[in-house]
Amino acid sequence: MTPGLGVLEEFPFEAAAIVLGPEGVRASAGDLTRSRPLRSVTKTLTAYACAIALEQGAVTLEDQAGPEGSTLRHLLCHASGLFYESDRVLQPPGRRRHYSNRGIDLAAEHVASAVGRDFEDWVRERVTGPLGMDRLEWAGSPSVGASAPLEDLALFALELLRPTLVGPDVFARTTTAQLPELAGIMPGFGKQDPNPFGLGFEIRGHKHPHWTALAGSPRTFGHFGMLGVALWVDPDADLAAVIGTGHEFCDHHRVLLPRLGDDILAAWGPSGR
């Protein structure tokens, strides 16, 4: 097995991964061309498309969007108070991290209205097209609807290591914690206090348990999807990984994904090179 990726063989179902540095692919194993449902990893693409609109001045993070008192920032960092998949409001904005697919969908609707484009067209024109993600399929909601092979997702991971589509200020806001003190439930891992999120990206922080490397930087950002795909970027290690499995998220992922991340950092991070 490729160095750093041996844990893939311990999954009791199909698993694949690509490890990337800023220069490109450092290691890979498994089926990299199979189209996989990204589920919540879709949120990272949506977030980046929103960041480009922010960079261009089409929107601001303080735009009113979503339920009363909510802003675009609240929607993108899961602090609007919206329920998971409906317009039901659990509490006023800014008080707690309520993970919400509906909030991300409303953020995309707001940006689409501001730029005067269908949101899928905006994503293709501003994100996936320039990056060459030609096999990505966009169907359904901006929070969970995309599918792509790991090879395409790796192109996005490379962009996140060395951004070209947004400037450093907007990129920093997108990938660092917004309202960092908020507590909340991390899907699949229970209550986290605090539970940091950036703008559509989950932030590692000091969450425990977690799906990224235990030895990883607290600045690690990315997302996992409930159908077994994950993407993370560790900016301190200057390393990224995209992972795909043939099973919905389960206890095997909770145990093996952190080990896989630790092995990747050990083999391909600064101390392993």
UniProtKB/TrEMBL annotation:
The organism's taxonomy opens as: Bacteria, Bacillati, Actinomycetota, Actinomycetes, Micrococcales
Superkingdom assignment: Bacteria
Q: What is this protein called?
A: Penicillin-binding protein
Cross-referenced InterPro entries: Beta-lactam-related, Beta-lactam/transpept-like, Diverse_Enzym_Activities
The UniProt entry, under Gene3D superfamilies, shows:
DD-peptidase/beta-lactamase superfamily
Please give the SUPFAM superfamilies that the UniProt record associates with this protein.
beta-lactamase/transpeptidase-like
Which stretches make up the Beta-lactamase-related domain? 38-243
Chain segments annotated as coiled-coil in the UniProt record: none
